[in-house]
Write a structure and sequence with these properties.
3 domains; alpha+beta; Immunoglobulin-like; single chain; 6-stranded antiparallel sheet; 3-stranded antiparallel sheet
Length: 317
């Protein structure tokens, strides 16, 4: 595959990178754009890689300079994981292990195809010092061989103004942001496994709820909601015990799918015990064909049910 941009594409990308560089000087206070451009002009393959990052929804920018190698370092400074790099597994092994809802690619392979690298944990923390990233998404980071050998992988994100590194599920970030959904096979016979604990918690919430409020938000698939009440177009309150049981029955024989990759909220479900709100859930009715995806605010719990069954429940409430 040809890895050179046309003269027109090259000029357009240079102008875009320059504008971003000048707008975000806090990321590279001591660096000069002219020197960066001189390096880029002499590196057509690097320009091609940067363009790949741009066309998949990223925002590559200079974050440092390596004096030993005389190289400028680009990270993807997109606030959230770009849409063109979502719904992928960590590596080929993880991809092969998936039996259902198999992603089209893996992060490791995609990075190699684009001529870039995943971030290490240290690099990811450096990125987070330059701004607030992954407030709603998470990112794969390079996983040490010892962890990967045990069928695990690392992902990181920022929640509660804190950068978290997690393992067990899988998520990634490169010299850009690549997001995904993946969960290795786990021994579900162990009562103490994280997956079983999370699943039982959702069941407990449903069993202990005495009421539920459902709100539908008017948003497009490129946006999300942060409790913006101006976008609520429909709302209903459910306190009837039979309706609550019917909601619980939607999840009969449905297993927790684990980490959900960057879904979009269309409905929000507020569970109450008396006058106290005990849990909030979200429903995405667009991203999965003929399915309704239920997920928690931290994207760690997910359930796929029939969209038809969900609509029947709403219509018969």
């Amino acid at each position: 595959m040809k890895k050179n941009l046309s003269p027109e594409q090259n000029i357009e990308l240079i102008n875009l990178l320059k504008a971003r560089f000048e707008k975000n000087m806090n990321r590279h206070k001591s660096l000069l754009w002219d020197k960066v451009q001189n390096k880029l002009d002499a590196s057509p393959e690097k320009m091609w890689s940067l363009d790949e990052m741009e066309t998949t929804g990223g925002e590559p920018d200079v974050v440092g300079y390596d004096e030993k190698t005389n190289e400028y370092i680009f990270y993807d400074c997109s606030a959230e994981s770009p849409k063109g790099r979502r719904s992928i597994c960590y590596d080929h092994e993880a991809l092969e292990a998936r039996k259902e809802h198999k992603p089209e690619n893996s992060a490791i392979n995609m990075a190699a195809e684009m001529g870039i690298e995943l971030l290490t944990e240290e690099q990811y923390r450096t990125l987070q010092q330059l701004g607030n990233f992954d407030l709603k998404t998470s990112s794969w980071i390079i996983t040490p061989p010892a962890i990967r050998k045990l069928k695990g992988a690392l992902f990181a994100d920022r929640r509660y103004d804190t950068v978290f590194k997690l393992k067990g599920l899988i998520y990634l970030c490169l010299v850009l942001n690549i997001s995904s959904c993946y969960q290795d096979k786990q021994d579900t016979t162990k009562a103490t496994s994280p997956k079983r604990i999370i699943t039982d918690n959702f069941k407990k919430v449903r069993d202990s709820s005495s009421g539920m409020i459902i709100k539908l938000y008017n948003i497009d698939e490129n946006s999300n909601i942060m409790e913006d009440t101006s976008k609520v177009i429909w709302s209903t309150s459910i306190v009837n015990s039979n309706d609550l049981k019917r909601f619980d029955h939607l999840f009969n024989a449905i297993k927790n799918g684990g980490y959900s990759c960057c879904p979009t909220t269309h409905y929000k479900l507020y569970f109450y015990q008396g006058k106290y709100k005990i849990m909030t859930y979200n429903v995405d009715t667009i991203s999965q064909k003929n399915k309704a995806l239920f997920f928690d605010d931290d994207f760690q719990i997910s359930y796929l049910i029939s969209l038809t069954e969900w609509n029947k429940f709403l219509n018969k409430k």
